[in-house]
Amino acid sequence: MGARKIKSENMVDLLVLDEEWVGLIIEAKNMGMQLEEVRSFLEKIVKDDGNKG
Questions:
Q1: Where does the Sin domain start and stop, copy by copy (predicted)?
Q2: Which partner from 17, 21, 28, 45 sits 20 to 30 angstroms from 36, CA to CA?
Q3: What is the DSSP code (8-state) at residue 51?
């Protein structure tokens, strides 16, 4: 999965988003999820989001 650009009105939104995602990834790791499981989950969300609209 390549890097994706996120449109935002200001950098604060991006920083908050990054902190939230980092926290969620750490929580998943602490729950015992493997990196590939997290990656698959995120890819599914991106794919599903792309199919809306």
A1: 8-46
A2: 17
A3: T
Q: Which two tokens stand for residue 44?
A: 């599914």
In this predicted structure, what is the pLDDT of residue 1?
A: 47
Q: Is residue 28 part of a domain?
A: yes
Count structural domains, the chain: 1
Q: What is d(CA 26, CA 4) in angstroms, rounded to the nearest whole number?
A: 21
Print pLDDT tens along the chain (53 aa).
Answer: 455 565 666 666 666 767 888 888 889 989 999 989 988 988 888 888 778 76
What distance separates the 2 farthest-apart alpha carbons in the chain?
Answer: 35
4 found inside a domain: no
